[in-house]
Amino acid sequence: MGRLSRAELQQLNRAKVLAAARDEFAGRGFRDAKVDGIAERAGLTRGAVYSNFPGKRALYFAVLAELAERAPEPPAPDAAAPEAAHEPPHPEPDSTVFEALGAFARAWVARLPLAGTGADTDEKRGSARLGMHLMPEILADESIRRPFGQLLKLDAILLGLALERLRPADAPHGRLVRVAEAALTTLYGASQLADAAPGFIEPFNVVRACEQLASLDLNDAWPPPYLPYIPHAQPADEPWDPPRAVDAVRGAPARLAEDGVVGILGLHRLEAAEELVRAAPPGATVTAVLVTANPGELAPLARLSVVGLRDCLRQAFPPSAWPRLQVVCDESGALAAAAGVPAVSDATEAAVRIESGRIVARADGRGACHAAASAGAAVQARTERAGGRRGRGGYINERQPLS
Q1: Do the Cβ atoms of 296 and 58 come closer than 8 Å?
Q2: Residue-wise pLDDT tens digits, 93-120
Q3: Can you tell me the distance from the alpha carbon of 88 to that of 373, in angstroms, rounded to the nearest whole number?
Q4: What is the DSSP pairing of strand 260-266 with strand 285-291?
Q5: Domain ranges in the chain?
Q6: Cα separation values, 183 from 84, 114, 385, Å
Q7: Which long-range contacts (C-beta less than 8 Å, at least 24 apart) are formed by 71-80?
Q8: Amino acid 24: pLDDT
Q9: What number does CATH give the domain 7-52?
């Protein structure tokens, strides 16, 4: 066997550290786990652990994210359909919002260590107990709490969009994100009580409570941004050559080459992902790229949040109801750089519009997602006013805002 390259050796050491940390956290609990103990289990030095992860909490988040990403997918209803390998198993074709919320809640509750259910395996109990310190660690630090709140906003947007797609065509087209927020509030509360008060949670009651949210009127409406205060999308004509990336919502390669809009969002601005979807024209591919100034701790937390939601979506929604929003966790910043955003922070909000393999419009600052996503309609209107004069990429050759 030849010598490993530096990159291969680093990848091998990282895998050793993750495996050792998983055993240390499972055996001693997060609070009592020691970095020296992890290094000893991995057969590496303490410095080698810190060269891969900035601290014990970052390592803990990374272990939980890896476990979630490696969890086996639920079996598809038709194992003879390999082309559907990346599509979620689906319930009956006549699924309703009521049924989907119930199925989603059942999938969520099934992951919890519920005393007395008789259904827990040692592996399941161990995995659940490994995550018992997640919320205490989030609560302990404001720098973690704020992005986590935005990650939950993103989860609620994804769940709400999926619920909206289940309604009959003749039903009122209201927003269901607040219903999704209420469901997640119920389920996260159940998760905390399952850890803090074993035997208290009655799974059937939790599922029934989530089902009943389908009929709850929360006066949910989508208020568009106040347009005078959002930036204009500027016309552009630049190559678009994004690196390969994974859509965390589907666990499959992200479709980044297709026409659509890509938003670059710091972890304090994730709620703007909804503006990408609401303002984009029908048929456009919509992608939210998650970036952070603290990738060591926050990037695995972001992956954990989205993947945890995905696993429940798979068991509750037909493929036709999955939200069209793609989510990419851009830990290295390579995708943001390809979009012309080389420096990122947790407050970043920028967006680009893609047509025929080129960036044809871009916006930056608060409201950029709405500006770039709605640029197509604005361009079409301006083109008509200009008598059909169009430049390369479909845009008028005038360096003026697209308003």
Answers
A1: yes
A2: 346 999 999 999 999 999 887 644 444 5
A3: 27
A4: parallel
A5: 7-52, 92-215, 227-394
A6: 28, 19, 47
A7: 71/311, 73/251, 73/314, 74/311, 74/314, 74/315
A8: 92
A9: 1.10.10
